[in-house]
Prior knowledge:
- The longest helix is centred in the C-terminal third of the chain and has 21 residues, at 358-378.
- It is built from six helices and twelve strands.
- By secondary structure, the protein is α+β, with helices and mostly antiparallel strands.
- Strands 1-2-3-4-5-6-7-8 form an eight-stranded antiparallel barrel. A four-stranded mixed β-sheet has the order 9-12-10-11.
- It is elongated and about 115 Å long.
- β10, α5 and β11 (386-392) form a beta-alpha-beta unit.
- It has three domains: 52-222, Porin; 235-297, no CATH class; 301-431, CATH 3.30.1330.60.
Amino acid sequence: MLGxxxxxxxxxxxxxxxxxxxxxTGESGRQLSARGESxxxxxxxxxHAPTRGMAELGVYGGLWFPNRRIELFxxxxxxxxxxxxxxxxxxxxxxLRAGYYPFRFxxxxxxxxxxPGRTRDTGNPATAWTVRGHLVGxxxxxSITPFLLVGTGILGVSGDAPPASLGTEQDVAIxxxxxxxxxxxxxxxxxLDVRNVVSNRLGxxxxxxxxxxxxxxxxxxxxxxxxxxxxxxxxxxxxDRIIDRxxxxxDVYGPGPRGCPQVCIDDNDGDGLENxxxxxxxxxxxxxxxxxxxxxxxxxxxxxxxxxxxxxGITFDTDKDTxxxxxxxxxxNAVDVMKRYPDIKVRITGHTDSQGGYRHNVDLSRRRAESVxxxxxxxxxxGDRIETRxxxxxxxxxxxxxxxxxxxxxxxxxxxxxxxxxxxAKGAKAK
Length: 431
């Protein structure tokens, strides 16, 4: 039975899962990205995998197949075999279980169950029961989680005294087996167990008796760890209490307002560039991210202002990273601007709405940004001039409760990067 279970679980792991995606920007999802380089982590087979520190509470039911020679009865002198009677071939089984998994691959469980059986000879009730614990090792990588377990506990029976039934008795038993958990979502799981319960065999030195059981269970999970996402921080590398974006000397401690130390070499305009290297020593650098190393005031060219912000007109096939042909004029214009200004870089950020799975949307937004980057690289822009990031639904600019709002949230945003960070374009489009 364990061999058949292993084959069944393997087949289910290899079967394709139905994809999910964001609304209105593509067709059905797929297992691999556009270049087949990474797995879609939002497929159901990955989405609800176990996490460390998780607890499981549940109920189970199934069948118990008691051994005909199991030594589970109240010995009574004067009766044949001291009052022993075999159980009927099978009995229903119901119970409760609780487990805790400090690691996603290992945990421990406690169970209590009853098996309301009958004796074969008299047909009278003979209710078996068990209280037991076991250790569980599982492959906690997928929403279908194979496992093995081994444990011990008490196996008992309660009924009328022999010869009417089996009386009252308890014995130590060990059990071992395996199965699979099927995580329907982050809170609900179904479970299949196939086990062997081993206890004493009737008679002196007769050895052990095996009583298999097959169980189906339903559990809820508690304490599932949520994926933590880094929050943007305002950095101050030199610790002078002037944040880096406003600090003219972000790596050297210095007083405000510019954050640069006092130096012996003159800096007439106080822009952090000494007179010998300042092309405009009497006019402070404008520090807008565009040509900030020459020491001269300047304005961001209109072409760069147009390049920054939401790139209207870049669209994709639904739930894919395939760029629609109508988008290519917009991207070609961006390529032309970057060729005219070879010192600037861009960051391409992909956004989605909140429809569909969270991890799938983050991955989809990243792949879409990468698709735009590949197009621009193929058009002649050096790859090290383009950064990408995908934030999924984390930075909305409109509500996700309406179709119009979701359409606004599905977007590609360009950030123009100068030598020291983003270019501060006065007329940049909304982010």
